[in-house]
């Protein structure tokens, strides 16, 4: 299979798999940064057999100095995944409300935990509905899974490593927040505006549109324009490591599975007032 087929699944293909002899485990991870919780959407209708998993409480640790969506405790994550029916060596498909961000963080978390057989439903719940496929309000009771969480299967960055990567000769650190946040003109969530000195900006809409990814060639071109080449260290961050997880998935699709996620992202960076903050575009940076 191609890299895309091992990372993404289209609605019609997923429907066929769900009617097969060994259907994948479905995880509904719909989530909003603000507004009603995703569990309400799940209750209104979800893919048949899907189990709701809470991004904030099941897939991430408690918010604090480590960031708004820090790494989960491995034992707690294992309990949550087993309760959702995730089995060792068995396929998992994650989906969200369509933008692909919380599903990508779920994809990243399972991969980081050592579970490789996980794909994202391309286009999420809206793609399923648009294909005329059935939904359900029945809440399943999955058989407990036996997945073993082995953290560290995907690379991560802490603040000091992100700072070194942002240095001109240490790699490329990509900030995928909106350009005004990167430039320090506005900051709607965190207490300080700006970016990690040396980071380049590639806002998420430049490489994903309404939760759907372009071809690998197009992704390579867009990341290359921001300074990400075929080789050399690369890391990504956003506000709290959710949108950036989607960037990691995009870079996997583009052939850079070595991309590191700064999990704490900007919410962790600004938790320490001694860390430097840059505003306005970096000299020589690619246009945002």
What attributes does this structure have?
11% strand, single chain, 5-stranded parallel β-sheet, globular, 12 helices, alpha/beta, 288 residues
Q: What is this entry, summarized?
A:
The chain is of the alpha/beta class.
Tell me the number of helical segments per DSSP (H or I, 4 or more residues long): 12
Strand segment count: 10
- Secondary-structure element sequence? HEHEHEHHEHEHEHEHEHEHEH
Main beta-sheet strand count, sense and barrel state = 5 strands, parallel
Low-confidence stretches: none
What is the typical, i.e. mean, pLDDT? 94
Rg result: 18 Å
DSSP helix fraction: 25-40%
Q: Structural class, from secondary structure content? A: alpha/beta
Terminal CA distance reads 34 Å
> What is the global morphology?
globular
What is the percentage of strand-forming residues? 5-15%
| Sheet with most strands: strand arrangement | 1-5-4-2-3
Report on the structure:
- The protein has helices at residues 3-7, 11-18, 38-44, 55-58, 74-83, 101-112, 124-130, 159-166, 179-182, 216-225, 243-253, 265-269, and strands at 8-9, 25-28, 51-52, 92-95, 118-121, 156-157, 172-175, 200-201, 234-237, 260-262.
- By secondary structure, it is α/β, with parallel strands linked by helices.
Question: How would you summarize the topology of this molecule?
Answer:
Layout: H1 3-7, E1 8-9, H2 11-18, E2 25-28, H3 38-44, E3 51-52, H4 55-58, H5 74-83, E4 92-95, H6 101-112, E5 118-121, H7 124-130, E6 156-157, H8 159-166, E7 172-175, H9 179-182, E8 200-201, H10 216-225, E9 234-237, H11 243-253, E10 260-262, H12 265-269
Parallel strand pairs: 1-5, 2-3, 2-4, 4-5, 6-10, 7-8, 7-9, 9-10
